[in-house]
Amino acid sequence: MSLKHLTIGALVAVCIFVAQAAAQARERDDKNELSGIIGRTFNSDQSIPGAPAYDPDLRFSNGLTFEINYARRVMAMSRGFFSLTLEVPFVVNADQDLHAALPNRIPKDYASYFVTPAARVNVFAGQGVSPWVSFGGGFGHFSDSSTLLFGGHYPGPTGTNTGVIQAGLGLDVKIFHRFSLRAEGRDFWSGVPQLNVTTDKSRQHNIFAGGGVVWHF
Fold first, then answer.
1. Among 128, 187, 197, 210, which residue carries the largest CB count within 10 Å?
2. What pTM, to 2 d.p., does this model score?
3. β-bridge pairing 118-123 and 46-47
């Protein structure tokens, strides 16, 4: 699946969910959410067998990351104390810089895209402050730069598709009737991007931490 098809598919899925929610908006019970989050993605270093001993690791920057998330509450439990919500986070890390002591082999950066439908459970649902946990899975795509670290044409693969498992936690704080502030952290456990080197990992944790605004409708 190409990056173009992946992005179009994700946007179509979100649009369908939003359209269905709008068709049901006459209920006016605020079961639907649309959120925008900005933050950073963090990745652990990975060892490269055979790399120079003075600098043996593949290292990652903390890439600026954006999330768009549509969600719909499907169940309230224990008289509203808990709620179950289905959500579709679409997360884009547009520029993850790389560093290794092999500048003529790896790309200078890559972008990542994750779409992971999930179930979310809120505590104190509908109250002013509501913590939550989320778990789900989906797919992701890594898109490598066509430029080598320190210049030159990158000869390696230019894209990697992967299955993804997502686990997250967060806190929502109401500020107006239909708006909340959200702080969250999500771990997207994925395969590794193909970067023209072999590391000691076959999967990696992509830790996203960020904050933003939620619209309830």
1. 210
2. 0.85
3. unpaired
- Residue 138: CATH number of its domain: 2.40.160.20
Quote the tokens at residue 47.
Answer: 């060892």
Structure tokens at 118: 């999930």
Amino acid at 58: L
Task: Give the domain range for residue 204.
Answer: 3-216
Under 8 Å between Cβ of 139 and 160:
no
| Residue 79 reports pLDDT greater than 80 | no
Q: Among positive and negative, which fits the CA dihedral 166, 167, 171, 174?
A: positive
Could you give the residue ranges of the DSSP H alpha helices within the chain? 3-23
Q: Look at the chain and report how many structural domains it folds into.
A: 1
Q: Which residues contact 164 (CB under 8 A, 6 or more apart)?
A: 114, 116, 137, 138, 139, 140, 188, 189, 190
Give the CA distances from residue 144 to residues 36, 94, 148, in Å, rounded to whole numbers and listed in that order: 25, 11, 10
Q: Residues in the chain, how many? A: 217
Are the beta carbons of 141 and 3 closer than 8 angstroms? yes
Strands 63-77 and 82-99, sheet pairing = antiparallel
Distances (CA, A) of 174 to 71, 76, 170, 181: 16, 18, 13, 6
Query: How far apart are alpha carbons 146 and 109 in whole angstroms?
Result: 9
Q: pLDDT digit string (tens) for 87-130?
A: 999 999 999 999 999 878 899 999 999 999 999 999 998 789 99
